[in-house]
């Protein structure tokens, strides 16, 4: 039976690769993006007019989330995937020099937005069969790595891990599984061309791992192959 996934930041990078793989296997995708009608999503919509549902969504905007929520009212979602993310500036992310405006902007996208989106679309997830909310975090948020760089990005991913565990415990009694993932180091605009794996490899691993997960995996932090990551 086909599933319905909703993916934020579905227009490029890892989000687009997951969208492509899901459409290929016959699932439906609610492709949420700031511009869901251009570029690669426009081509996919032409190929899959029934299975691809483009939705305009800026994950940092309450008005945009409210409009998307209204557009999707009554629509069951099996898997809600918080994928949209920002790295922040390549400099001014050190312990001794931080761009505070950039830090706030990254927190809006990487920390507050996944919770905003999860809260807004929880009724849709509860109406679905899958009952899963997954968030793309990063191994860079692991405190165990004890790092000395990328303060803005790393702290945002540590924070979203904590926020999602609190959220996961809040919806545990509703049988909604909440999971955090490291997608690998992926060849995207964010990961760069020298990264380890292609977006398709990451997408296939994430889909396989999410498919095989349920309530037993709620509040887990794993990579795209399903291997646990130390918090
Ligand atoms: N690539 C890696 O190696 C890697 C490693 C670990 C974790 N991750 C995480 O994986 C996720 C996807 O990363 P990626 O590599 O695919 O990045 P990417 O190629 O830079 O794509 C980022 C996506 O996020 C969207 N986005 C940013 N701000 C948004 C907003 N306010 N509203 C809606 N969408 C917004 C972008 O949309 P626009 O096109 O509109 O800007 C784009 O679709 C992120 O959470 C990232 O932190 C990536």
TrEMBL record:
InterPro entries: NAD(P)-bd_dom_sf, SDR_enzymes, SDR_fam. This is NADP-dependent 3-hydroxy acid dehydrogenase YdfG. It comes from Bosea robiniae. The lineage of its organism: Bacteria, Pseudomonadati, Pseudomonadota, Alphaproteobacteria, Hyphomicrobiales.
């Amino acid at each position: 039976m086909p599933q319905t996934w909703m993916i934020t930041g579905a227009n490029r990078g890892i989000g687009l690769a997951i969208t492509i793989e899901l459409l290929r296997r016959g699932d439906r995708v609610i492709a949420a993006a700031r511009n869901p009608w251009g570029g690669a999503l426009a081509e996919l919509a032409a190929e899959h007019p029934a299975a691809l549902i483009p939705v305009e969504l800026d994950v940092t905007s309450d008005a945009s989330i409210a409009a998307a929520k209204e557009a999707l009212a009554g629509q069951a979602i099996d898997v809600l995937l918080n994928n949209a993310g920002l790295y922040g500036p390549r400099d001014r992310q050190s312990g001794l020099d931080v761009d505070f405006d950039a830090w706030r902007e990254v927190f809006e996208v990487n920390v507050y937005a996944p919770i905003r989106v999860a809260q807004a679309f929880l009724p849709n997830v509860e109406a679905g069969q899958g009952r899963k909310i997954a968030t793309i975090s990063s191994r860079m948020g692991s405190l165990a790595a004890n790092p000395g760089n990328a303060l803005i990005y790393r702290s945002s991913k540590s924070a979203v891990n904590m926020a999602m565990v609190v959220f996961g415990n809040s919806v545990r009694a509703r049988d909604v599984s909440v999971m955090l993932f490291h997608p690998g180091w992926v060849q995207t605009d964010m990961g760069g061309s020298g990264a380890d794996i292609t977006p398709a490899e990451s997408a296939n691993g994430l889909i396989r791992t999410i498919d095989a997960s349920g309530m037993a995996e709620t509040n887990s932090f794993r990579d795209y192959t399903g291997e646990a990551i130390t918090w």
